[in-house]
Specification:
Blueprint: H1 7-13, H2 16-23, H3 25-65, H4 73-96, H5 98-122, H6 125-148, H7 158-178, H8 180-189, H9 197-216, H10 221-232, H11 236-281, H12 286-301, H13 304-313, H14 316-336, H15 342-369, H16 376-404, H17 407-418, H18 421-429
Helix pairs in contact: 1-10, 2-3, 2-10, 3-5, 3-6, 3-7, 3-9, 3-11, 4-5, 4-6, 4-16, 5-6, 5-9, 6-7, 6-16, 7-12, 7-13, 7-15, 8-9, 11-12, 11-14, 11-15, 11-16, 11-17, 11-18, 12-15, 13-14, 13-15, 14-15, 14-17, 14-18, 16-17
Length: about 425
């Protein structure tokens, strides 16, 4: 079976391969399972590519620039790059399907990681900044891959489908930071700067993730889902009545979902970005930094299966509120922990990742609930642009906040900001 370049044409002409899926619920279920398998494999590689770079990005800039003031710039740049990539991946997915959109994003991220390695070798700060922008495509794609599993999922499976994609990221995401020291030694052995080592791993991981999706994501789940939806929507009068009835509720849901994901991303990135620098000032080395970031990223993804079940069973709203409360506790603990206390900093970073996990899965489920297949991929890409920009803002401002105040002030402010989720949730839930 082969994908069709123009999914709108596929819906209109209903070719034999697509009609066979429309007519067979069993084939739909099989494709749903195959899609999840492809997403899981790609996310393992994508998680390694994401986490390896995050762990040392700030340290690489600090080393090349000789100051802490701009230590947040690498995170800001690659999240800014991920904003543009999120929009492009969403548009590509809308037009050509998930396979082409996601594979293109991962391969572009791999090219950016190669650029970072070249920048470190040549000590070229401008090449570093440009490459980090391109490297951000991998981060955007890593997040957008979570939507692929929801295309053929029922409403009661959506949060769990998101969680399966996220938890598979854990394997690579936890391994990536813990390979920082190993990759540093490898980089030194081949004659390149130690801090470029993790980006060598990131390049290989992102490229492999893209190739996996090109090979396995067939037929495209989004194109099949659109074909199924076109048949279900033949009764245009009933569809119009339903659209009129739910239009305002859907708009409110999209706003709420975007706000939840934007705030959790902002708070998480701001605190996470400056934690390695904060630890460096208190005598911790690369091994300790890699370990604590590994625990943090593990908390971001590992609880996903349980979170997905809770979001589907208990509800989107309670879990979104739990995100705000968890992030507040994480901020308070990070602010009050002594700089030389690995234990308390680890707990704070675990809670930071857990709060982000609650917010991302509940927000994603609300977004999918509030969109239809005619605009879903494009809307998801647009929302992920805002999510990426919030991460860029948090990363860019975090260094300046710490230089002009302290890590404790940054952490406490982030925790308090997360509480804004609660009034947004209350507003969105009003009839």
């Amino acid at each position: 079976m082969s994908d069709i370049p123009d999914d709108s044409a596929a819906v209109k002409t209903q070719p034999a391969w697509l009609q066979s899926y429309i007519d067979s619920p069993e084939k739909q279920r099989t494709l749903y399972k195959r899609t999840l398998i492809a997403v899981v494999i790609s996310q393992i590689f994508g998680g390694a590519g994401l986490a390896a770079g995050i762990a040392v990005g700030a340290l690489l800039a600090q080393d090349m620039l000789g100051t802490d003031s701009f230590a947040g710039v690498p995170i800001a740049l690659f999240t800014l790059g991920s904003a543009g990539a999120a929009l492009l991946v969403g548009r590509l997915s809308e037009r050509f399907g998930r396979r082409m959109g996601l594979a293109s994003g991962f391969l572009t991220g791999g090219a950016g990681a190669i650029g970072v390695v070249m920048a470190a070798i040549s000590n070229n700060i401008f090449l570093l900044f440009a490459s980090l922008l391109i490297y951000g495509a991998g981060s955007a794609t890593n997040l957008q891959a979570r939507y692929a599993g929801t295309d053929l999922a029922s409403p009661k499976q959506r949060a769990q489908a998101v969680s399966i994609a996220l938890v598979s990221t854990t394997f690579g995401a936890v391994a990536g930071p813990n390979l920082v020291e190993v990759m540093g030694r490898f980089a030194t052995a081949i004659g390149v700067p130690a801090l470029s080592g993790p980006f060598i791993l990131a390049a290989a991981a992102y490229i492999l993730a893209g190739l996996v999706l090109l090979a396995l994501l067939r037929p495209d789940p989004l194109i099949v889902a659109k074909g199924i939806a076109s048949v279900q929507a033949r009764n245009k009068s009933n569809q119009a009545n339903e659209n009129t009835k739910t239009a305002s509720q859907n708009k409110r849901g999209i706003i709420a979902a975007a706000t939840i994901m934007v705030l959790t991303q902002l708070v998480m990135f701001a605190i996470m970005t400056m934690t390695p620098v904060h630890m460096g000032h208190h005598g911790h080395g690369l091994k300790e930094v890699g370990m604590i970031i590994g625990f943090h990223i593990g908390a971001m993804f590992l609880p996903s299966p349980l979170t997905g079940i809770l979001v589907d069973k208990i509800g989107r709203v309670p879990m979104a509120a739990a995100s705000g409360v968890t992030l507040l506790i994480a901020g308070i603990l990070a602010a009050s922990a002594p700089g030389d206390s690995m234990f308390l900093l680890t707990i704070a970073l675990i809670l930071l990742g857990l709060g982000w996990n609650f917010g991302l899965i509940s927000g994603t489920a609300i977004l999918v609930d509030s969109t239809n297949l005619s605009n879903r991929a494009k809307t998801q890409g647009s929302v992920d642009v805002m999510v990426a920009l919030s991460g860029a803002s948090g990363g860019a401002l975090s260094g300046m906040v710490v230089v002009n105040s302290s890590y404790a002030v940054l952490s406490l402010a982030g925790g308090v900001l997360a509480l804004l989720l609660i009034p947004v949730i209350i507003w969105s839930n009003r009839q």
